[in-house]
Every structure is written in C-alpha cells, then in structure tokens.
Automatic annotation (TrEMBL):
<dbReference type="InterPro" id="IPR050779">
    <property type="entry name" value="Transglutaminase"/>
</dbReference>
<dbReference type="InterPro" id="IPR036985">
    <property type="entry name" value="Transglutaminase-like_sf"/>
</dbReference>
<dbReference type="GO" id="GO:0046872">
    <property type="term" value="F:metal ion binding"/>
</dbReference>
<dbReference type="InterPro" id="IPR038765">
    <property type="entry name" value="Papain-like_cys_pep_sf"/>
</dbReference>
<keyword id="KW-0106">Calcium</keyword>
<dbReference type="InterPro" id="IPR001102">
    <property type="entry name" value="Transglutaminase_N"/>
</dbReference>
<feature type="binding site">
    <location>
        <position position="439"/>
    </location>
    <ligand>
        <name>Ca(2+)</name>
    </ligand>
</feature>
<dbReference type="InterPro" id="IPR014756">
    <property type="entry name" value="Ig_E-set"/>
</dbReference>
<dbReference type="InterPro" id="IPR013808">
    <property type="entry name" value="Transglutaminase_AS"/>
</dbReference>
<dbReference type="Pfam" id="PF01841">
    <property type="entry name" value="Transglut_core"/>
</dbReference>
<feature type="binding site">
    <location>
        <position position="386"/>
    </location>
    <ligand>
        <name>Ca(2+)</name>
    </ligand>
</feature>
<dbReference type="InterPro" id="IPR008958">
    <property type="entry name" value="Transglutaminase_C"/>
</dbReference>
<dbReference type="InterPro" id="IPR002931">
    <property type="entry name" value="Transglutaminase-like"/>
</dbReference>
<dbReference type="Pfam" id="PF00927">
    <property type="entry name" value="Transglut_C"/>
</dbReference>
<keyword id="KW-0479">Metal-binding</keyword>
<feature type="active site">
    <location>
        <position position="321"/>
    </location>
</feature>
<comment type="similarity">
    <text>Belongs to the transglutaminase superfamily. Transglutaminase family.</text>
</comment>
Length: 680
C-alpha cells in the first residue's frame, strides 16, 4: 500500500491526478506491506533512477531498516508491525536526484534471491524543506510559485501596460510525464545519459537544460519561435491561453516543435515545467527591453532619411520581453547570490553554443557582477543598456548619431502579486535608481568587467556627437481613443528651443510592428515643411483611418509612428511613439452558483464595435477544475454594432477559487482575452 492520499497530502502533491506515488525529496513517505512473513530487519531496499543506476553517481541506493533517518542518504525506518503487515517510512536525502525511481526490496535472510519490484514513484524538489537548494521560507510564496496553476502575464509597452491570464496547468493530466520526457530529450542526455541523470539533483543544471529544451532551436524542443507577424502553418503566439495544449501537442506529434511561440509563451511553458518539478518559478516582464547582440551594453537603432525604422541591426529594443525567475541557492557563487535566478527560454543569443540562458543571479545583475555564471552580461544589458539612435544612408553606408539615452531601457519590471491578481513592480531588485550615481557606477563597473572601458570602439559615437544639442524638440500626443476599429488621431507637437527662426523638413511614417518593434507593414507616410518662429510651438494633427491600418495590423496591435525632423543648419531630431491599440472588451457572466459536480451556465457577451461585418468568429475557453480540455465554439457572423451572446455549461470538479480563461478571435480582431475568477 503506497498510501497515495496521505503521502500526497504531506508532500504537497495532492494536485497531481496520478495513480503513481509522487513525493518530494528530503522528506519521509510511508509504505505498508501485507503478508510479510519475513522478520523486517532482514529487508533491503533498492531505489534507482536513470538508464544506468550506480552508487557513485547517486542514481542508486541500497538501504536496510535503521532506527533513525539519515539526512545524507536514503533510509528506511520501521513504523509499525502487526501479525501480517509491516509499515515502513522511507526518506531520501535533501539533495537526491529528482525523477522517476524504481523501488525494489530484497530479503537478506533467504540467501541470494533476486529483488522483488515494488513499483515506481516520482521524486521532486522540495521547497518546503529547509535543507533543499530550492527551500522557500515563506509558505504563501510556495503556494503561489509552486502550487498555483493560474498566472497573469504583463505586456503592452511602458506607457500602456496590459495583462492577460494564463493557465500553467502543471498538475493536469500527463504534464509531469511530459516534463520528465523533456529531460530525456535534451542534448546533454543524448550525449551522456548516465552523467545527465546524475546532475538532476541540481536546480541550476536543470534550469539551464530546460531553458534550452523549451525552444526548438538545437534540440527539437517544445516551441518554434516566429516574430515575422505572419503565422501560417501554425497557431499565432497570441492565440494560446495555457501551457497544457502546447505540451500535449508536442508529445502527440512525436515531439515535433509546436508552432509558434514568442517570449511570453516560452516563459509560460518554462514556468509550468519548473513548477511541476518543484522549483519555485514566476514570469517577469521587462518593458523597453534591450536585445544587445554584440555584448557592448549598447543598443543601436537605425532610421533612413524618410523616418523608416530600418531592420538592419542585430540589436533591438523590444516593447516588452518576458523571462523567468526561479528560486534556489547558488553554491557555485556563494550565499549573497542565492534567491531569484533569471532563466530565459526565448532563443535570442547562443550561450555555450546553444540557445539557452541562465541561471543569472538577480543580485549579481543588480551589483554589476557580470563576470559570474551564467549569461549575466546579456541579462544586465536587457535592463541597463544605453541606446543610440542613428540616421543611416543605405547608398553611402554613412551613419550619423541623432541622439543617445541611458535611461530608456528596463522600465516597470513586473510580475504577478502573491495570492492576488495584481501587478508588482520589481525594477528596484534589478538596478539602483535610474540616473542615480550608484546606478552609473554599477554600469561603469559592468563595462570594466567586460573589458569595454579600455577598448577603442570604432562604432561608438564621439563625445562631440553625444553632447550636441538639438534646436527643436518634438513629441506625439494622442488625441482620441486608442482602439482597434477606430481611427487613430495624433498630434505632432514641435517646439523651437532657439531664439531665431528655424525651418524644419519633417518626414513621417507609420508602420505596424510586432512587440519586438520589428516593422512589418507600412501603413502611412507624409512629409511637411515647417517654419518655427523663435521659441514657437506648433501642433500638426495626424489622422490614420481604421480602413488604412486594419489589413496591416499584426496580432500585437502595435503601430510605430516616426517623424524624422531635418532642421536646416542643425542636427536631426527623431520623434517617435509606439502605440498600442486596445481590443474591444469581452464580458463573462456566471449565471448562478458554481458547485462541485453540478452544471452551471456561463454567458460570454461581445459587441461588434465596427461598421463592418465580422466573420470567422471563434470562442476558446479553458479552466482547470471547471472543464476538461479546451472548449471551442464557432459563433455566427456579427453585423456592424451587433451584440452576440454565447452560453455554455461548466461542471466544476473541485471547490475553491478557479479561473476561467476566454479567447475570442475573428477576421477583424485577433485574440481578445479575458479571465473570470469563479468561486466553486
């Protein structure tokens, strides 16, 4: 008798729906044998994992009955005996290899009889145990970062943060087995299975291996990335609502990469896998995130004379980027680097020859200790890089600095609150206050450690270029609603900063982009010539009609508007704004009280805000313990301004607060998301 219920309760594994024993390391579990005639002191247990179990690799343990639990090794302690049964408590060491074990027993009194197999069990990390590398002293944080299956991911841009729900679903169905098979498909396992398995006691090792396995690069991992804005042959990254469907699809297809992912999808899937294995993990969103491809802590952006943002540099500044933080100690670096560690499964740059990133200690990032393992310079740049904006002439290859900024990157770094559906800002955990002396000192320290201080960089702007002062200033103001389906009204405001008149030629463009700010389709362009009297400010209204941008928009609903101002006799001024258009709202109502195993009806209401007919409308619904799998409902076409109501039934299977996630798509709007908390 494996005492599945009692052991699961004691080991915080009750949420797994498994007929197999799932326990956490460094903690005892109970077994009872019936019909044993053997005196129990003569029993020897064998626990083994991996393809070549061995004692030196700590993937095999042989242990008899002892009177006390050992912290450093496997042990068995007699709990009780009766005439025909014996109960034994088995403990694993706090640093045991995690994974699926075979347990056998051998009776030493009957000579050399071969061991009898008792079956298998799965061993996980134990954040509730103070000796474990992943120990998390705060119980509420353990609940959130290991046991919570619902998450909120932040997106948008720094002027306009939005969020959506995600179903991590780490305890659902077959997810644990898929996570274990992910480890067995890694490059490390393929090269040397026995050594790989022997390292699976170390969260640093597993975090790094899994950051590589969640993307398809190098190893036929889970998700194929696509940032083109065109997603034929797969599902658009913004259409997913949970990790379960992605992981199941990966397994069902014979482990072919699932199409398609972008950063939050990679991060959400990695959260699912690490929480499933017992490593406390959360998603982090960094707004204005730098992708520094050449490791110089500087990001270069190029614009042509017409104001088009050129996609010619490997460097880029993303509206936002999502990565992970996992909680564990760093025996390799020392205790001051314990705690949250950055892992990133989005394939951006190679590390050690493959697309993986981390673990980088968050404390090391804050202190500028970029020489520490792993990938600290890349993560440091994501939140700290300086930005340079250049005018580039494709004909001559000449580039001219327009301006540089050191306070743009790494804003409003966000994660979901513990136990609440709110945003928490963690920017101060990544860096000292922007613009403070301490922050600049840390930046210099990082440059020095990377050997950038002493090296001449021919691509860097000269001090003269950096110090030049513009004659005019400009910005885009929003005049009206920023909603898909409505015209976009903006005002370009230009101000003369000098006491003599200035003539300015302004080239303006608007492009649809993906959230990485990569331009996809041109929407609009215009140019004007302006004379500004001394100290004068002028406003120029701009209108981009819905019909102009509707076909060009990507699923990110982002438009980059740029005005490149050529000031006669002065330096150029770049005015730009990344605009996010909101989707129309969708409303969920639960009609009645939600009770376990009783049907309850849910209504989803949506109104077509445009004056065009909406076709191909599909509603997708998921929610753990509320319905099995994913519900897809086709909705008839909606005429202009028409309201649709869709009803469906749920049969909740468990009590407590549960989350229902809804995704609505049609030919005019992509992936309108919302979620509703349902108290069962």
């Amino acid at each position: 008798n494996w005492h599945l219920k009692e052991n699961a309760r004691d080991h915080h594994t009750s949420k797994f729906s498994s007929k197999e024993l799932i326990v956490r390391r460094g903690q005892a579990f109970l077994l009872t044998f019936n019909g044993t005639e053997q005196p129990e002191q003569n029993l020897t247990f064998i626990a083994e994992t991996g393809p070549k179990p061995s004692k030196p690799a700590k993937t095999q343990a042989t242990f008899g009955i002892s009177s006390t639990v050992s912290k450093e090794s496997w042990s068995a302690v007699l709990q009780s005996t009766s005439s025909n049964s014996v109960s034994i408590s088995i403990s694993s060491p706090h640093n045991a290899v995690i994974g699926r074990y075979k347990l056998s027993v051998q009776s030493t009194s009957s000579g050399s009889s071969s061991p009898a197999s008792l079956g298998t069990f799965v061993l996980l990390f134990n954040p509730w145990s103070s000796d474990d590398d992943v120990f998390m002293p705060n119980k509420a944080e353990c609940e959130e970062y290991v046991l919570e299956e619902f998450g909120i991911i932040f997106a948008g841009n720094q002027n306009h943060i939005n969020s959506f729900g995600w179903n991590f679903g780490q305890f659902q169905g077959d997810i644990l087995n898929i996570c274990l098979s992910m480890l067995d498909r890694s490059l490390n396992y393929r090269q040397d299975p026995a050594t790989d398995v022997s390292h699976r006691n170390d969260p640093k090792y597993l975090g790094r291996v899994l950051s590589a396995m969640v993307n398809a690069n190098d190893d036929q991992g889970v998700l194929l990335g696509n940032w083109s804005g065109k997603y034929e042959g797969g599902k658009s990254p913004s259409s997913w609502t949970g990790s379960g469907e992605i992981l199941q699809n990966w397994k069902k297809s014979g482990f072919k990469p699932v199409r398609y992912g972008q950063c939050w999808v990679f991060a959400a899937v990695l959260t699912t896998v690490l929480r499933c294995l017992g490593i406390p993990t959360r998603t982090i969103t960094n707004f204005s995130s730098a992708h520094d491809a050449d490791g110089n802590l500087r990001v270069d952006e190029f614009y042509d004379a017409s104001g088009n943002h050129l996609d010619r540099a490997a460097d880029s500044i993303w509206n936002f980027h999502v990565w992970n933080e996992s909680w564990f100690s760093r025996s390799d670096l020392g205790p001051k680097y314990n705690g949250w560690q950055v892992l990133d499964a989005t394939p951006q740059e190679e590390s050690g020859g493959i697309y993986q990133c981390g673990p980088a200690s968050r404390n090391a990032i804050k202190e500028g200790d970029v020489d520490l393992d792993y990938d600290c310079p890349f993560v440091f740049a994501e939140v700290n890089a300086d930005c340079m904006y250049w005018n580039y002439d494709p004909a001559t290859g000449k580039k001219t600095l327009i301006f540089s900024k050191s306070t743009v990157i790494g804003q409003f770094i966000s994660t979901k609150a513990v136990g609440r559906d709110d945003r928490v800002d963690v920017t101060n955990d990544y860096k000292y206050e922007e613009g403070s002396k301490k922050e600049r000192d840390i930046f210099k320290k990082a440059r020095k450690k990377l050997g950038l201080e002493d090296k001449f960089d021919p691509t860097a702007p000269t001090p003269q270029e950096i110090d030049q002062k513009p004659d005019i200033s400009g910005n885009f103001k929003v005049a009206g609603p920023l909603e898909v389906g409505k015209d976009l009204n903006l005002i370009l405001v230009l101000a003369n900063l000098q006491s003599d008149a200035k003539t300015v030629n302004v080239n303006m463009t608007a492009w649809s982009t993906v959230y990485t700010r990569r331009p996809v389709n041109e929407i609009w362009k215009d140019s004007i010539s302006v004379t500004l009297s001394p100290k004068e400010e002028k406003q120029f209204p701009i209108k981009i009609q819905y019909t102009e941008y509707q076909q060009q928009l990507t699923t990110d609903n982002t438009i980059q508007v740029t005005a490149l101002c050529h000031v006669e006799g002065g330096i150029q001024v770049l005015v730009q704004r990344d605009i996010i258009l909101d989707n129309p709202a969708i409303d969920i109502q639960v009609l009645g009280e939600a009770k376990v195993n009783k049907e309850v009806e849910v209504e989803v209401i949506f109104t077509n805000p445009t004056d065009m007919e909406m076709m191909d409308c599909v509603l997708q619904v998921e929610g753990n313990d509320l319905l099995r799998g994913i519900l897809e409902i086709d909705i008839p076409p909606l005429k202009a301004s028409e309201k649709s109501s869709t009803k469906f039934k749920l049969i909740p299977s468990e009590t407590g607060p549960k989350h229902l996630l809804v995704n609505f798509s049609c030919d005019k709007f992509a992936d309108i998301k919302t979620f509703k908390m349902v108290n069962v």
